[in-house]
Specification:
Six copies of one chain form a homohexamer. Chain A is α/β, with parallel strands linked by helices. Chain A has eight helices and twelve strands. In chain A, strands 2, 3, 4, 5, 6, 7, 10 and 11 form an eight-stranded mixed beta sheet that branches. In chain A, strands 8-9 form a two-stranded antiparallel sheet. In chain A, helix 4 links the parallel strand 4 and strand 5. In chain A, helix 2 packs across helix 6. The longest helix of chain A is centred in the last third of the chain and has 23 residues. Chain A is elongated, with a radius of gyration of 20 Å. Chains A and B meet through helix 2, helix 6 and strand 12 of A and strand 1, helix 3, helix 4 and helix 5 of B.
């Protein structure tokens, strides 16, 4: 029942890097408005922006044992995605584990629970998106699993999925869809650049997007 | 039922500027402790401090269509105040809309829902006070209204009301009361400057405000 | 029933300073994972790190009268710990009170309620850990007590307890235990420094902590 | 600033009674999906169903003084609508006040705060919709106002508005619109009765509402 | 992207019935403490106890169009499981839809959002587990999907999974595991019956489960 | 560190019984508005009304081992009061434990966490006040303590304190104060009976409590 899957497939590094540039909001839109983690998942400091392959960890509430197990499974460019089997705000992860993740080439953490040592993590430039900041310690008593599908902050994350995270939150992209999503995301970015210029120059969205007729048909009245 | 009110009255620009200087806590006190939006309304970055005339927008949940309509109604010195008709944390507003608002002279956004692209908004210096940061996209299907009275984060806001917002939150001042409130707020500021000096010099509030006798009468015992 | 205890014992200043250096997470662990305030208690700005002796204040909801009374009881190196008798997010404390606390040598505030003037407090470098930022004013009508045991954000705090607070939250250490807790905390710090180096060098927690055998005994399978 | 408005207009008793029969969901729909109080407003017991004219009360947090003032303003068929100026879960209202309201002909209470003595209130058959059940006592120190516009649980309520409340929650209907809303609500009820029979007999909403073509046009695929 | 899967496999009716008898807590334990929906999912009335095959529905926030589509896919013994793509408390479902579901043989609803007409639903004996009771109406503008995997209240539910629901909440059992889970659940029930008798007769769990030695080894002291 | 205190003092049985009759709201008032647990502590069924001596249990999050230990310490007329050291909604307690508590003469449970088997508990007439209903199982790995002071739902509870609980929530009375509190509570009950009659007969609180003059002095205006 409790397993560690050692070999997972990951998306191509260039695709992952491309998704990081596009950002959470664009990627989420590009894949049809799916994959977003709950908005309570907040970064511990502003400005971080990453995309990385998910090493998933299913943990017992207030028990961080499996995080130690998961570190060994991480490779360069991975991000750890931790989901407790029952809600918890405890501080599963701190600066020592961050050193360990970083030593493996890991680039950050997404955890539907608490994190601690946030000052040290901030100084290290180790980004974390979490539900809480909490110093509460955890135990090492109960097994979980590594690299199995998890539900993290309301979103299904499979091992090897691409996690995109920035100041807007966290989005999961299925590994198999990553190339296609990147293509669509880049198209959105290109399209938005043009729109941004026109809007900044004073054109209205009402005109750019041809909304006036449909608004009138729906019955909007100007008084 | 769904209307856009095109001509609204606004408070005098000097009064608005004066209220910005006084800040939310002082203005809220000066008008008798009313008008405060719920404390879950937080700025997306620290340090912003604005006062502006409200262009109000009533929107459907997860539908940002009327925000595009509202942009056209904004003038220099306005702030957009968005209230969904049913609770929503979705990301109604991002950097493109901010460019559009700014092109009209708008100075910011107050939204009882979510906002996205907060990194770009922060770089633009476009202040937003919101209930959530959330990348979730919205649709453009259902009409709402612009420049009608709205309840935003528990406070009634009429179009043209002065919105004062800073790191302490958001306060609405009725347009008709703005001049009088500014007068009282400035009196408070002057009074507080004196108090601040005395307190910083070591005098006690117990003495400055003559509290000792009333405390004793109420029965406070020193042991 | 409503009392002000004027003479409380405090921990030795060097012990208090030592606890500040160790930080919340370490101190909380060192004393057996007790004493942590709820994780909703957040600092108004990042980077503050203090330890100080608690002057406790039991206040009525939305009534900050006793805070004025408590200021007089503060000495150099104290921190005020405020707990309402019924939940409240109102803004009990602002920059004027901070000036007054600082004039007495007080170093900060922990309040299971709201705080306001956070921009000024940040500029002053006056740290506050609170449940909310809220401009809502309070009254001065109902007595409370100063330097009695209080439950603040779910933790029991006695007057003179050492409060340790940083970006991870707030922890209370019983005065009588402070020396012993410091000793254990320093041992943890020393131990962690060594671990940090080994982890940063790529050793795994699985090996450092000898976890592999116990994981296997519990039934973990690698696939 | 603190006033008691003694003469308010009320809707016609027959209209009020008609709205009670239609229920919250129908009335809310009939008036264009507005006027609903937040869904955290729950009845203290199941099965109550009322419509009544609002006597509004603006109260200070944790202060129920104005409720005593408001009782005097109640007439037969009224319901008291209480909104604190700052959030509070305290128990503003219990069985004694219910006796007093009932003696004036009042039919219930809507309060964006706490209520207590719920066992007694249930035995009396005195319905209350509240944010919380809480025994915490309140003080009588700060004035508020009676029969002024209030924002209660996110909805604007004017004195004399018709409050409709049942197991689904609470809805406010503007007095001036009450007759028209009743007409539309009754039309909905009649229409729904027919629909209910057809649906219960196995017809599908897809067919009754002619949805299939529009679904196909939008791109829904059956696989 | 938006699909309706018309043919799904369901678990054997006898297995489903067996799981209903065992109840949520037992089934959840029997399958290794997985599959539980969040504890905010509460029944609209006490005493309902069902197990049924899931017809899953992914809906847009505040949009119940796909529920109408899903009704057609329901068969005798099914339960509808609705998950919005963005959080919503709106009232997606009421008595008319319940009549329609019942006409197809459906036995209830699990919805990570709001439900309305709860009085009528209670009188019908139509059980619903929901996040909220809310009269807020929804629109019919945006497509979703039927019988695709959904994350509902934090749990992954696949179409055809067995949903077990009672006063303790809701649990999902993978269809393929249902027979095995039932076997284990029945073993637990049998075992618990014996334990219940011994405990009711005054034997202690400390003795029945042989806990005393392990407690002593861990260091528990009796004083 | 982890202890079980075997001999605790309890209040006199007649005093405990007297407090039960007075109820939570009255007892809370009689002792000066202290001792109330947070209003999120709700009974699993309506109508229960108990007073009993607290056997306190400090438990690890999601670990119910110490509850088994605590059962042995219960005597006739006791109630178990459980507080996790870190927040948890897991289901620590079900019908088997209730049988065991009842076999010792225990009368109920107060738990700042989750409970399960609520249907069975309701049928047994075993009252529980909890933060959540949740089927999530717990482990038996980490020690805690029995009959030590605990903070439960924001209130300090010492072993042997009298717990009063009914539909309004839960209140703790210090053992040493119980006789005095009962006296005051009975005085309140007597006084309220008289008030209730006068209010029910149509007298106003404004007159009974002589409020009119003070309201006028504070500045209340009738318009």
């Amino acid at each position: 029942m409790n397993i560690v899957v050692q070999n997972i497939e990951r998306a191509d590094a260039e695709i992952v890097a491309g998704l990081a540039e596009c950002g959470v909001a664009t990627v989420h839109e590009a894949q049809g408005r799916i994959g977003l983690l709950a908005s309570y998942m907040r970064p511990i400091y502003a400005g971080a922006r990453v995309a990385a392959s998910a090493v998933t960890v299913s943990v017992a509430p207030c028990d961080n044992w499996m995080i130690h197990v998961a570190v060994e499974q991480m490779k360069a460019g991975d991000i750890m995605v931790v989901a407790p089997t029952s809600p918890s705000d405890a501080g599963y992860f701190g600066d020592l584990l961050a050193e360990s993740v970083r030593a493996r080439g890991g680039v950050g953490l997404v955890i539907d629970a608490g994190v601690r040592d946030v000052r040290d993590l901030t100084e290290m430039g180790f980004p974390v998106w979490s539900k809480a900041v909490c110093a509460q310690g955890t135990v090492k008593e109960t097994l979980g699993s590594v690299n199995v599908p998890v539900v993290c902050a309301g979103a299904l994350v499979n091992p090897g999925d691409v996690i995109v995270a920035d100041d807007d939150g966290v989005c999961a992209v299925a590994r198999a869809d990553a190339a296609e999503v990147l293509k669509k995301a880049r198209a959105r970015v290109a399209n938005e650049d043009d729109k941004r210029k026109r809007l900044a120059a004073g054109e209205l969205g009402l005109d750019i997007y041809n909304m006036r007729q449909r608004l009138a048909e729906k019955g909007l009245k100007y008084v």
